[in-house]
Amino acid sequence: MTYSELFEQIQKKQSFLCIGLDSDIDKIPKHLMQKDDPIFEFNKQIIDATHHLCVAYKPNIAFYESQGISGWQSLEKTVLYCRENYSDLFLIADAKRGDIGNTSKMYARAFLETLPFDSITVAPYMGEDSVSPFLEYKDKFVILLALTSNKGAFDFQYFKSQDEGMNLYEKVLLKSQQWGDHTNMMYVVGATKAEYLSDVRKHVPYHFLLVPGVGAQGGSLKEVAEYGMNSHCGLLVNSSRGIIYAGSNEDFADKARLAAEDLQHSMSQLLSNYFD
Amino acid sequence: MTYSELFEQIQKKQSFLCIGLDSDIDKIPKHLMQKDDPIFEFNKQIIDATHHLCVAYKPNIAFYESQGISGWQSLEKTVLYCRENYSDLFLIADAKRGDIGNTSKMYARAFLETLPFDSITVAPYMGEDSVSPFLEYKDKFVILLALTSNKGAFDFQYFKSQDEGMNLYEKVLLKSQQWGDHTNMMYVVGATKAEYLSDVRKHVPYHFLLVPGVGAQGGSLKEVAEYGMNSHCGLLVNSSRGIIYAGSNEDFADKARLAAEDLQHSMSQLLSNYFD
């Protein structure tokens, strides 16, 4: 999916919602455990109930890997189910990968070829050759970690160079623009620090930002839009637990739909404020 | 395996060699393609031929993930084969993972429980809560990226704070010592910059260092030992391509053994220099 096509989907659905599929075998409704593949069945019902309310799904790869081979089977089925049934979705592998060039090439193959994701989250610590193999795929995106929403973000991401007059996360934003542009790169920017979004926007006015941390992690959607929206929306706001675990019984998919509708309604309002 | 047990293995085998299993379906000998699981068959023959010459194996997870579910099957079989046949091996999942706390917990489960590795490489960008879930496993190790051996290492790892008087990689070494110690943490330090090993040793005198980059990436084993060895050896030096692809025909495992013997002989000499 291209930058323009993603914006078209946002306008059509009046939503910039990404739903995080952090599907945990210990948290999904108990009645699903009778199914052959409980995790896939859970994801399928969530997707069927919410696909018209969001533009993206983001399976969190750790949750699948924790189950070994059966987890990879659930992941593959989920991605293929989206591709076969809903052609308008942007699919993000939340994998936080990154290694030396010949190894990142293998991770790129894993998530952008073997599994047909549109994008993958990548950690910047190892620099250009750890990121560039992911950028060689046409109409696919690297989503590079810049400023994350967890407590540990303060350990290194704000490490400041007086020489260069900036923090590490700003250096990541600037340096990485030599490797790709807004048509093949996005950034992860945590919503728990919405006030920083305006600083981020000074460095990357055109890029999409993947914003975790609205909902369970405490960010405010209104502030995110105020500081982060650009002329192509430029935002994918993720909610995981607040949607997928909104219910815990047989009606869990309906509950998830209601939670997603709440967010989509708010997003529709924010989009109309900006684009009218 | 504990810190002391690893040192015992090094003394017993007179080797601090780690063999990287970057097993690539496009590079393994062609005759193996007739086997049910060519990658596992390749690994099995390499391990049978070299296990007495090394203390550790390091499957590079990207190469397995690039093959999807069948790759995970090859990986699982490889790890279980080591566990069942050679109880004295230290097994490293070279995975470069790291995410927010509840997600790193899942990666820890994937590689330290579901797959019975002794250790996993972890990227530091997201800070403490991205690393600490891996540290909760008794007698297992986090191997944290500090100074990597690739060109991209220069993009961020040398980012310097005048305030703190150090580079990012030094900050990672110092800060992370608040989370764990030499009994549950090691560091990745690239051998292409052997002269930096003495700087690294000032910060982490007791920790083991996992040193990639000897061989294909150009580092010198002698310099690594000179600058990096400590009273418990404190080094695991990795070679991947130089050993596993030493041959490309039916005698590939013999060729791998010869290449590993060369390194083990050099290591034995360096150990005797240090410990006599």
What is the fold's blueprint, element by element?
The structure is a homodimer of 276-residue chains.
Chain A: H1 3-13, E1 17-21, H2 38-50, E2 56-59, H3 61-65, H4 69-85, E3 90-97, H5 101-114, E4 119-122, H6 128-131, E5 141-147, H7 153-156, E6 160-161, E7 166-167, H8 168-176, E8 185-189, H9 196-203, E9 209-211, H10 221-228, E10 235-239, H11 241-244, H12 252-275
Parallel strand pairs in A: 1-2, 1-10, 2-3, 3-4, 4-5, 5-8, 8-9, 9-10
Antiparallel strand pairs in A: 6-7
- Our count of domains of chain A comes out at 1
- Number of distinct helices of chain A: 12
Give unreliable regions of chain A as ranges.
none
Question: Structural class of the helices, strands and pairings of chain A?
Answer: alpha/beta
Order of helices and strands of chain A: HEHEHHEHEHEHEEHEHEHEHH
CATH superfamily of chain A: Aldolase class I
Beta-strand fraction estimate of chain A: 15-25%
In quaternary terms, these chains amount to: homodimer
How would you concisely characterize the structure shown here?
With 276 residues, chain A is α/β, with parallel strands linked by helices.
